[in-house]
Amino acid sequence: MENIARSSNVFQQHSSGTAALNGYNVLYIPNFVTEDEEDYLVRKIQESPQPKWKKLQKRRLQIWGGEMTAKGTLCEEPLPTFVCQHPDLIGRIKATGVFNGSPHGSPNHIIMNEYEAGQGIMPHEDGPKYHPVVATLSLGSHSVFHYYRYNETESPEGQGASGSGRSIDRNPVLSLLLERRSLVISFNDMYTSHLHG
After folding, report:
1. How high is the pLDDT of residue 20?
2. In angstroms, how far is CA 11 from the centroid of its own chain?
């Protein structure tokens, strides 16, 4: 049976008022937004212009803040006001301090993934194009977030599930129940040497 961490006794209080998961570079913040703020954010996302939605094979997403080029340069564009003003998600995330070492000092790029019930995403890395920190806000439902490692031994070239030639250990290092309206921030080695899905 899989062990899923909840926001109870596995977290220690962080100086910024957030909960840091013992032994992992992960911050978990339950009730990061209120129910009214969640309703507002979901409505604003749904009201986004249709061209903003990118359709993938089994899901769709929106990208805000600009597209990332193949060379890792962000073609910057403004973030939407519904994340910068009320309810000021960017300011709240910045206040956690985990983006202090990033070139902008705060989040400057957003990928909004929409998942239907039962959908998910395979274990993956966000890669070196981004500063080694990612914040994930769960809206509309809870979800389970898994962190994985590569297998210690290299697999034959081209056999890795990630396409990098390395195979992934399918046993999660850590699984978190992301409660509705919660925020999880993965940074340092949980970004650079772990995958998530």
Report:
1. 57
2. 19
Q: Which helix (H) or strand (E) holds 37?
A: helix 35-46
- pLDDT per residue as tens digits for the range 36-78: 999 999 999 999 888 888 888 888 888 888 877 777 677 788 8
CATH of domain 11-196: 2.60.120.590
Q: List strands edge to edge, sheet with 133-137.
A: 11-13, 19-21, 26-29, 183-187, 133-137
User: E strand or H helix at 35, and its extent?
Assistant: helix 35-46
What's the average model confidence in pLDDT over 73-100?
88
Q: For residues 166 and 160, is the Cβ–Cβ distance under 8 A?
A: yes
In angstroms, rounded to a whole number, what is the distance separating the alpha carbons of residues 126 and 107? 14
Beta strands in 66-153, from DSSP E residues, in sequence order: 66-68, 74-76, 110-114, 133-137, 143-148
- Cα–Cα distance measured from residue 96 to residue 10, given in angstroms and rounded to the nearest whole number: 19
Q: Where are the domains of the chain?
A: 11-196
State how far the Cα of 93 lies from the Cα of 133, in Å rounded to an integer.
11
What type of residue is 77? E
